Amino acid sequence: MKQTSFLSITALIISVLILWGLKEIVILFFASIIIAMALCTITGKIRDFFKIPRWISLVITIISIILISSISIVIIIPQFTSEFQELINQIPSAASKLWELSINTFLNFSELVYKDNIPDLADQSILTNKLSMIPDGASLANAVTDSITKLVGLVSNVGIGILQLIFIISVGLMITLQPQSYREVAILLVPSFYRRRARTILLRCGNALSSWMAGVLLSSICVAILVSIGLYILGIKLVIANALIAGVLNVIPNVGPTISTIFPLSVALLDTPWKSLAVLGLYIIIQNIESYVITPSIMHKQVKLLPGLTITAQFIFTIIFGPLGLLLAIPMAVVIQVFVKEIIINDILEKNIFSTKI
Predict the structure, then answer these.
(1) Which residues of 120-140 are buried (b: 16+ CB within 10 A; e: fewer)?
(2) Where are the transmembrane segments (predicted)?
(3) Deepest in the core among 26, 48, 150, 160, taking most CB within 10 A?
(4) Domain for residue 13, yes or no?
(5) How far apart are CA 353 and CA 349, in angstroms?
């Protein structure tokens, strides 16, 4: 092995170890890139539509976001906060009622089975002892409450969360102001013969992220509207909170829609048990519409990710980066897929560009 090759491999290993040690900063920086890409995409659309300089379109974008956020804080957020608090408070009661329904169903089924052969007192006492070993509704409700409290305590480190949010927004705005300068800095880290190709790959990554963000935003809005209409027709309370939760969690494939179903099911179960089945059917129908109608029509230009790869990416990035890794698993998978396709498949396996240049 040549000395230059050995030094290159050593430098690569050291770089990977350094990045692993700074993985928390890396995921925050990637989140900043996501925000910068969103701002740049909106800015570019405004600039192309109105034919105005970029800095004017950027100012319009930031002012528009501030106005929309302010209106949301004044009008939507208070209503959502109160309804969400009520949702959280109703989950233990719903769990208790679900447990009581399960026990009653089990007893009714046992009575139906033993209709002609009623067990004696000894058998009944055995059944009673077995049922007593199972936690009752109150215990289950307390367990659910304790779990929610621990979960909230796990993610409620407000100080660190605010600092991380400030870091993400600040870096995102800095990148948005001079995106080409930051891109050129990244390209300088690439060997000179590959810089033109690297510039093209980064551009394709940016296009993939932009299409993903636009598609997810429109898809989440459609899901929120469908959920609000469906819950309103079924007469389920707390429509606004459930609709916003469904729209926000729709960003997280597979896991998000499943979690969003828990809240309306709890409300429906406390109202009328049959409504919980109707709500479950409603969410299944909406998710099928989103998966097979909305997403294909909106994201026809998006980088396609197989369901198995999506779940694998969510699992791996959650283990490595924590909850933020779960939230950013799909955009990271989109970027990685572009890199794999362009570098490993096109350049190394097909064109073998590196062996010809080095």
Answers:
(1) eeeeeeeeeeeeeeeeebeeb
(2) 5-21, 27-44, 56-77, 154-177, 201-234, 240-265, 277-295, 315-340
(3) 26
(4) no
(5) 9
For helices 23-50 and 329-339, angle between their N-to-C axes, nearest 10 degrees: 80
Give the whole-angstrom CA distance, residue 237 versus residue 98: 18
Rounded CA-CA distance 61/180 in Å is 18
Does this model's pTM top 0.85? Answer: no
Q: How far is CA 231 from the centre of its chain?
A: 22
Give the H/E segment covering residue 171: helix 158-177
**Inside any domain, residue 287:** yes
Residue 15 maps to a domain: no
Grouping H, G, I as helix, E, B as strand and the rest as coil, residue 31 is helix
Q: CA-to-CA distance for 95 and 266, rounded, in angstroms?
A: 8
As for how many domains the chain has, the answer is 1
Give residue for tokens 């969690």. 249
Whether 14 maps to a domain, the answer reads no
Give the span between the Cα atoms of 145 and 151, in whole angstroms.
Answer: 10
| Residue 79 vs residues 92, 244, 262: alpha-carbon distances, Å | 22, 11, 20
Per-run averaged pLDDT (10 residues), the chain, 358 residues: 64 75 85 88 86 88 86 70 69 69 69 56 48 49 53 55 83 88 85 86 87 84 91 84 86 81 80 81 88 69 66 85 84 87 84 56
